[in-house]
Amino acid sequence: MSALTDVKILDFTTLLPGPYATMMLADLGADVLKVSSKDRYDLVTHWPPKIEGSDTCAAAAWLGRGKKTIYLNLKKQSAIDAVKKLIMEYDIVFEQFRPGVMKKLGLDYETLKKINPALIYCSLTGYGQTGPLADRAGHDINYLARSGLMASAGRKETGPVLYDMQIADVAAGSMNSVIGILAALHYRSQTGKGQYVDVSMLDGVAAFHGMDGASFLSGAPAPARETQVLNGGGIYDFYETADGEYMSVGSLEPKFFAKLCQGIGYPEWADGEVLKTDLKLVKESFRKKFKEKTKSEWTEIFASLDACVEPVLSLEEAQNDPHLCARDMWPEVSLPQTENSMITQMGCPIKFSESAPTYRHAGYPEGWHTDAILSSLGYSKQEIADMIS
Within 13 Å, how many C-alpha atoms sit on residue 123's CB side? Predict the structure, then answer.
């Protein structure tokens, strides 16, 4: 039995944040029904390339994992009526439209909770349901910028630096949505009451300032690029190697710093006193030293030293990393529409002793289950064709 076997979610989200959240919930056993518009282009579910021999791109096959998918044209009353029927069965709604859109469609929380008082309704947006920016469009880079995080990220010479990963979308938006939905489920199990959950991606990253944020709010100066312990102002940083690759150094605690000095060839600095007297000398020396050997040579040196020093791996290297493989982070998942075809995907990061995540199937092409789901509600083929056209 999966952890969320009896949880049923009606998913109106698009792009990355909402679909990533519902994929995680599906991995944990939730029954997720994704509602899409046949004519609305979704950048992520059409992200190239397509999987060979399939009508699905790799991103859609990943984000659609474990879900069912139907088409509905929500501008048609018949489609709205179908959603209201589904609400009695799928009693969690997750949507990602701008504030007010679902109300115009007649599918807002206040309307739907009259049909199902136990309804849990999560709205995920960039800026939240209230405030001056509530109606504003945005993407991950915008939320990171407005949160204040990017003012202290990157290098003094080059400014902010992007990751090839959407931090605000996933780490803030997706994860906080999952937390909010699960917390609301627990509340409902205790009280019988559903509720509305408002998740903002900007709110989520505004809370990511960590220790320097807490210090600033207590009167310390605002953090700036390469001035803090954790953003390049100290030894905690990336160091180029002889072959143009990089090593990461996180040797903050004295015992780890001592091991770092042992491995890199400065045993006389192991007591850490030099960090108090000449940090610039230490960092410059480390930069020069790391350039004397290749990434693989340094990796071998630090493999047996408990120093918090690790190589910067490419995605190809990470896929073959023995530890990540042992943690089942690259599972083989069956691909619908094909005979005995499997694809490698990024796995669920949560491990359980009793209810392990399950990868029932990769994502189906959008709308695949439309006829089966809507006909089960009593609609004819003609009525179904009308409500999705």
Answer: 21
What is each CA distance from 361 to 6, 82, 131, 346, 347, in whole angstroms? 18, 26, 40, 13, 12
Q: Which two tokens stand for residue 354?
A: 């009793």
Nearest 5°: the CA angle 368, 366, 26 is: 85
Phi, psi of 205, deg, nearest 5: -80, -25
Distance of CA 54 to the CA centre of its chain: 25
Between the alpha carbon of residue 186 and those of residues 4, 194, 195, 355, the distances in Å are 12, 10, 11, 18
Distance of CA 279 to the CA centre of its chain: 36
Residue in the block written with tokens 């390049």: 232
The interaxial angle of helices 17-27 and 175-191, nearest 10 deg, is: 50
DSSP class of residue 291 equals: T
What are the phi and psi torsion angles at 230 (to 5°)?
-105, 5
Residue 305's alpha-carbon distances to 90, 172, 263, 297, 322, in angstroms, are 52, 34, 7, 13, 18
Rounded distance between C-alpha atoms, residue 293 and residue 312, angstroms: 14
Angle CA 172–72–174, to nearest 5: 5
- What is the residue-wise DSSP string for 172-221? IIIHHHHHHHHHHHHHHHHHS--EEEEEEHHHHHHTT-HHHHHHHHTTPP
250-267 residue pLDDT tens = 999 999 999 999 999 999
pLDDT confidence of residue 232: 97
Query: What's the pLDDT tens digit per position in 282-329?
Result: 999 999 999 999 999 999 999 999 999 999 999 999 999 999 999 999
- Verdict on whether the full-model pTM lies above 0.85: yes
Contact 67, 58 (CB under 8 A): no
* Residues with catalytic function: 139, 169
Whether omega for the bond prior to residue 49 falls within 30 degrees of 0, making it cis, is yes
Tell which residue, 144, 143, 137, has the closest CA to residue 160. Answer: 144
User: Angle at which helices 77-86 and 381-388 pack, to 10 degrees?
Assistant: 110
Distance of CA 224 to the CA centre of its chain: 26
DSSP 49-101: PBPTTSSSBHHHHHHTTTEEEEE--TTSHHHHHHHHHHTTTS-EEEE-SPTTH
Both tokens assigned to 344: 């490698």
* Closest residue by Cα to residue 23 from 327, 358, 372, 367: 358
